[in-house]
Input
Amino acid sequence: MAEVFYVSRKKYEELLEELKNLKEIKQQLSQEIGTAAAQGDLKENAEYHAAKEKQAETLSRINELELRLRNAQITDDLTVDKSEARIGATVTIVDQAADIEFTYTLVGPSEANPDKGLLSVKSPLANAVLGKKQGETFEAQLPRGPRTYKLIKLEYK
Output
């Protein structure tokens, strides 16, 4: 069984749009290959080989997207205990030692972008906050060593 692919509704729709565009490109490439093949000797036909290579890349991405979309679980639709940090939650935490505050939205790995406040649930920090309630203190095993945090705000937008 394939792994569940957690994704926001927005990202899901972006992937659907990408798939639609790739299928249009696939059609164009099929026509280009047919035109190039009609030009004769395929051994020395650069246009034919370039189109075939692009077609293989496009088909690979189409297959990847179709698999992801087939196994997608839209996080916006999940029924979760909203008193605990789960995928889709926006959490504000404080590093207890450094007294630094961070706010992240917990997302699936494919959407992760810490610079934009999107933290993968597979990351050590997000994994440590999962299941915690507002006000709870927790420890995260980070690459630079263990750190203690406090979940000061928990919301679902």
Observations:
- Helices lie at 9-37, 46-70, 124-129.
